[in-house]
Amino acid sequence: MYVAVKGGERAIDNAHAWLAEERRGDLDVAELSIAQIREQLSLAVNRVMAEGSLYDPDLAALAIKQSRGDMIEAIFLIRAYRTTLPRFGATAPVDTEAMACDRRISATFKDAPGGQVLGPTFDYTHRLLDFALAAEGDIPEAPQSEPRTEVTPHITEFLNQEGLIQTEVSSDDVPGDLTREPLELPSSRPLRLQALTRGDEGFVLSMAYSTQRGYGRNHAFVGELRIGKVAVEMDIPELGFAIEVGEIELTECETVNQFQGSKTEPPQFTRGYGLVFGQSERKSISMALVDRALRWQELGEDNMGAPAQDEEFVLYHSDNIQATGFLEHIKLPHYVDFQSELELIRKLRREAMENINPVQEAAE
């Protein structure tokens, strides 16, 4: 007989205590501080902030510590905390052209106006374990250089001098907010970009990879990838002007895609766009590729039936918190549901056996 397992509040409390013990680990090993996680696991912190939709490195580091390094659990914690915060207003659009770039590269223009800045990157490293890190030795300091403060124009805009790239039309319309309203389809491009920037990095990466393998007719070049800090400004009605309320680090990617033209548009290049909190190159490039694939209808292209062109498939399945919740709920008690399934299978087996037995007897 199948019976419900009974535990209750005491069992849950014990599970929580055991979890805390496992999270702390060996007491002979020094405990990780929030500052250590924030400073030395910054790429993990950046992912939690981006997919959690909250820019706060300290809280993201705390979430990583609390979740024992489970990124999705940490993102869940940040999103849950975010819902408790008051909203005072909306900031002005950030000016990424005024970004103080720590890294700025282009795969399309070697001599990019403003220069290319390699910055801190794994791109040119040998993928070999550095055992010096295990020895906790001193790390050589990088040569000191003055931070870039000059305005750095977007490289793709230089294609506009010949009219070779589609012009993005600015709009004063207030975009929707996925953190306050549910997604509705068909969605606008601003909402799609919000969903992608909050989407699971692995899922968005796999969708982007599918476009590169031919599922979506999307051969792209990285027009520009830049990482740096931008000022965040907010209009204060009482003052009559905007003031700077903070500074955040962003990764921005613009891809350049070939476009054969349509009935209304001449052959030209088009763009894909990605913008993510912190240093997150893989996510921003993936986002730009998927953004471009989802623009097929807007650009009058054929739908090849590729997954990355399916707005509903991409946007409804990119959110790792929703996906995790639906996936993991099946490990919770479903005793009543299973009992009904069990009785149905027993009934079907009895009926099947009753039909089989007369046939066997006739054959004998």
Short description:
The chain has 364 residues and is an alpha+beta fold.
Could you characterize what this model shows?
By secondary structure, the chain is of the alpha+beta class. The chain has 3 domains: 10-82, no CATH class; 96-118 and 149-167 and 182-318, no CATH class; 333-359. Helices cover 38% and strands 14% of the residues. The protein has helices spanning 9-24, 34-40, 42-52, 57-66, 71-82, 131-134, 189-198, 201-212, 281-293, 311-317, 320-328, 335-363, and strands at 100-105, 220-236, 241-259, 268-277. It has a 4-stranded antiparallel β-sheet with strand order 1-2-3-4. The two termini are 36 Å apart. The model is unreliable at 1-5 (pLDDT under 50).
Topology:
Layout: H1 9-24, H2 34-40, H3 42-52, H4 57-66, H5 71-82, E1 100-105, H6 131-134, H7 189-198, H8 201-212, E2 220-236, E3 241-259, E4 268-277, H9 281-293, H10 311-317, H11 320-328, H12 335-363
Antiparallel strand pairs: 1-2, 2-3, 3-4
Tally of discrete structural domains: 3
Number of helices: 12
Strand order of the largest sheet: 1-2-3-4
Beta-strand percentage? Answer: 5-15%
What share of residues is helical? 25-40%
Give the biggest beta sheet.
4 strands, antiparallel
The stretches of 5 or more residues where confidence is low (pLDDT under 50) are 1-5
Radius of gyration: 26 Å
Please give the alpha-carbon distance between the first and last residues.
Answer: 36 Å
Q: What is the H/E string? A: HHHHHEHHHEEEHHHH
What is the mean pLDDT? Answer: 86
